[in-house]
């Protein structure tokens, strides 16, 4: 009934997994199907201009706007330390004043001399002065010291948050990369399926014209082809979505993508070891612990308001024409001032109690985060195991469905199977091939997910060749600055 014969096997490459998928066709059609499947999976498998997964992750690490936004946020957090350190330093203020003062004098009548009585005199002065004042805190109840420690804890928390964001971007980048590869392979499979269905419809119509099959067989072939076109359109739309996501995360359109590889070599040997690593190194947990430190220092900062405050104020001033023309007055003073709070209405006490509750809240949040991390490690590890098993099952399914399709076609030749049976077998084989592609994609993505869930997904771990962002550099540049309006990068 059908002239489609077995011509060979095409290999779908995914990392180290090689799956043989038998393609049945004749002549140039068979060659075209083989080339499509080979190109669909990984574009060119070699070449000087092929983009690798690590290369794409390097682009995302360098230029992803979300990651750069987090870095800018950390740089802003760094400035909290020099702001807190300013409490140790003196404040200097200068002031100047100048004006005009005019006075009118009326002389009283003097009976003894007969003078006065309505005579007036005007006096105009130009008072002006300069004042320089220096204030220096001596004792602030520990406010400055604890403010500095709080700011440093916030910086440490911000660095861990940045590391967590880096992990998220690297995982999203790996997922976007593999989605493009997998969706390209699926689209190619769907296109191949349409070509086979078109050939099958043509042969069915030829057989209908000579009376070998009925109009029902033709209608079934036409319906299968229409479904194939719909599946092809859906696969094309999914690929366009994946390409858009790839550009959003990586920052460039995907072109020649090389096969991806799992990162299982960086993972612990078992799930229990993975959980142990995650609880000790996950950036979300470490960020929470630093946040607890910051909240504890905030309690001490508030408590300092209930302690005495000691400071020294020194001032020098010079005034001109304050009382009469060309007079000059210079004064200087050094004053120590001690402020002892007695009762401030209960505001500070309430703030301290509130801050202590916030410390407890931060500690509880760390516990919540630990459980979330534990759950994520176990779930991602299970997903990785499931993907491996799915690959093995899908490989078996593809091989079995290929044999089944060949048998159905042979049985259809002698009238033991209908056209619908052949179409169903063809669809089942297509589904198993698509499932295999998805399982291979899921294995790589799941391995990245496990690596991120234990807190080790980084360009350093992966060995990505990219200049690593140094979060300490900006901190060291601004920590001890006493002044200056420009940021270290010149803005």
From TrEMBL:
GO molecular function, one term: porin activity
Major location category of this protein: membrane
Pfam families with a match to the protein in the record: OEP
InterPro entries: OMP_efflux, T1SS_OMP_TolC, TolC-like
Locations listed in the record: Cell outer membrane
Cellular component aspect of the GO annotation: cell outer membrane; efflux pump complex
Gene3D superfamilies: Outer membrane efflux proteins (OEP)
Keyword annotations of the record: Cell outer membrane, Membrane, Transmembrane, Transmembrane beta strand, Transport
TM region(s), chain numbering: none
Domain of life: Bacteria
Family per similarity comment: Belongs to the outer membrane factor (OMF) (TC 1.B.17) family.
Protein name per UniProt: Outer membrane protein
């Amino acid at each position: 009934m059908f002239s489609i014969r077995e011509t060979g096997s095409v290999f779908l490459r995914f990392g180290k997994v090689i799956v043989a998928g038998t393609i049945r066709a004749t002549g140039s059609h068979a060659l075209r199907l083989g080339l499509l499947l080979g190109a669909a999976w990984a574009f060119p498998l070699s070449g000087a201009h092929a983009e690798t997964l690590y290369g794409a992750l390097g682009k995302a690490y360098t230029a992803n706007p979300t990651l750069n936004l987090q870095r800018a946020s950390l740089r802003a957090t760094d400035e909290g330390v020099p702001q807190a350190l300013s409490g140790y330093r003196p404040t200097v203020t200068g002031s100047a004043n100048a004006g005009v003062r005019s006075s009118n004098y009326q002389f009283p009548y003097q009976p003894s001399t007969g003078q006065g009585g309505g005579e007036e005199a005007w006096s105009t002065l130009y008072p002006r002065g300069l004042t320089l004042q220096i204030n220096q805190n001596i004792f602030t109840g520990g406010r400055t010291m604890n403010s500095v420690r709080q700011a440093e804890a916030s910086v440490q928390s911000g660095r861990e948050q940045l590391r967590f964001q880096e992990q998220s971007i690297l995982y999203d980048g790996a997922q976007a990369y593999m989605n493009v590869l997998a969706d390209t392979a699926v689209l190619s499979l769907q296109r191949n399926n349409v070509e086979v269905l078109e050939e099958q419809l043509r042969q069915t119509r030829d057989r209908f014209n000579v009376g070998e099959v009925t109009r029902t067989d033709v209608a079934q072939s036409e319906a299968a082809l229409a479904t194939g076109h719909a599946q092809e359109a859906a696969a094309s739309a999914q690929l366009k979505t994946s390409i858009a996501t790839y550009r959003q995360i990586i920052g460039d359109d995907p072109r020649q993508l090389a096969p991806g590889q799992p990162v299982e070599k960086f993972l612990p040997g078992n799930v229990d070891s993975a959980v142990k690593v995650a609880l000790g190194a996950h950036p979300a947990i470490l960020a929470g612990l630093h946040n607890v430190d910051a909240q504890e220092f905030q309690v001490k900062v508030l408590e300092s308001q209930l302690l005495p405050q000691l400071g020294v104020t020194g001032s020098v001033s010079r005034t001109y024409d304050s009382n009469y023309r060309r007079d000059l007055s210079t004064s200087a003073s050094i004053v120590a001032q001690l402020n002892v709070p007695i009762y401030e209405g209960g505001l500070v006490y309430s703030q301290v109690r509130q801050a202590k509750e916030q410390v407890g809240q931060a500690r509880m949040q760390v516990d919540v985060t630990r459980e979330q991390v534990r759950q994520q490690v176990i779930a991602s590890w299970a997903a990785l195991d499931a993907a491996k098993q799915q690959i093995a099952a899908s490989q078996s399914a593809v091989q079995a469905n290929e044999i089944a399709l060949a048998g159905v076609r042979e049985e259809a030749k002698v009238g033991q199977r209908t056209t619908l049976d052949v179409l169903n077998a063809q669809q089942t084989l297509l589904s198993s091939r698509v499932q295999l592609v998805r399982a291979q994609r899921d294995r790589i993505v799941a391995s990245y997910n496990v690596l991120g869930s234990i807190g080790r997904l980084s360009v350093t771990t992966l060995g990505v060749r990219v200049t690593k962002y140094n979060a300490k550099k900006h901190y060291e540049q601004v920590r001890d600055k006493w002044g200056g309006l420009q940021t270290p990068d010149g803005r």
